Amino acid sequence: MDQRTEAFLAHVQDGGVVEAGDWMPDEYRARLRKFVEMHANSELMGVLPERDWILRAPTLQRKLALTAKIQDEVGHAQLLYRVVEDLGKPREACLDDLIAGRSKFHNVFHYPTRTWGDVGVIAWLVDAAAIISQKALLKCSYAPYARIMRKICWEESFHILHGRDVILTLVTGTDAQRELVQEALDRWWEPLMMFHGNPIPADEDPMVHWRIKSQANEDARQQFLEGYVPQVWELGLTLPDPKLRRSDDGVWSYSEPDWEKLMAVVSGHGPASAERLAFRRLSRAEVDWVSRTVLAEAA
Amino acid sequence: MIYEVFRRERQGAAMQHAGSIAAPDGRFAEIYAREQYGRRGESEALWLVAREAIEELDEFVDEFDLKYRRVDGYSIKERLKEARAAAGKNP
User: Fold this and answer.
1) CB-based contact (8 Å) between A296 and chain B?
2) pLDDT, tens only, A128-150
3) N or C: which end of chain A has fewer CB within 10 A?
4) What CATH number is given for A3-298 in this structure?
């Protein structure tokens, strides 16, 4: 490691921050860019499972709330792609890589949404899991990313409430509505347990090393379990893991997720990966004339 | 085009940098900025500035140690004590 890189590393490890125009080592820039790009992709792909339910939302109020949430997520994608652009990769290249399957997006967006129960579980628990990671990113050494996270976290807070409201309506409804939630929860539990990634120790995680991330994967998962399992149980719902249990010292134990399956899912082999990417390709092709017209007019 | 967006959160507050948007021209920039930084009533005014119009200055070297411009350039405690003592002797 050369002297300049060493000084940079010491700076970020000591809590120092980096701005877009500052010098940064190639490895830092590459890792950061890939990470933020995956985050942006996830926001963009994450609206597709919910989009399926705009037309089928049970009430006008729900339809409007869901649409507002989707607008928020697309807005987050826009903000994050801006961060990526300033790190040197154009948005067009990000979208090309995304639809060609060359870049990744979060595991939870590779699964189908079968019922309205899924919409509740996603807005409540997937967003809860995401907010835990996102809050930790407020401390990211790359200041433009950390600043955008403040706005994102602020907007996300209503999503969890919206999800909880959907769930509470269903569990206080008919037996069939309650069953809808339980069935969705049973399907979503595995991807939720995979969400924060394999339990790589913080001191072996290069993302923590460069202080792009400041939270170990397992810490995030423990925080999720501690915060949300009791909330699930208090509604009389069950979770499909017989090993799930909180020990006296506050640590949750659970059945080890299949990490190879997680790798397969995020590399495009999830149950809905192909369909989602095909849809994104289709909409890109369909709106291509709009961007060409707009850019020609502006030029 | 990249536009830097500044927002005023409430009347009397300073404009603060909010983020940036990419837009093909000013008309689109206005629409995007309204949606991105104003749709929840979180701003009472926005400034849009083309990024290329911004001139950044980021080096502030104090080569001549101009401490007399600052509060920490003055240490009056000891001399005040001295002055008070002198005043006590000459009422």
Assistant:
1) no
2) 999 999 999 999 999 999 999 99
3) C
4) 1.20.1260.10
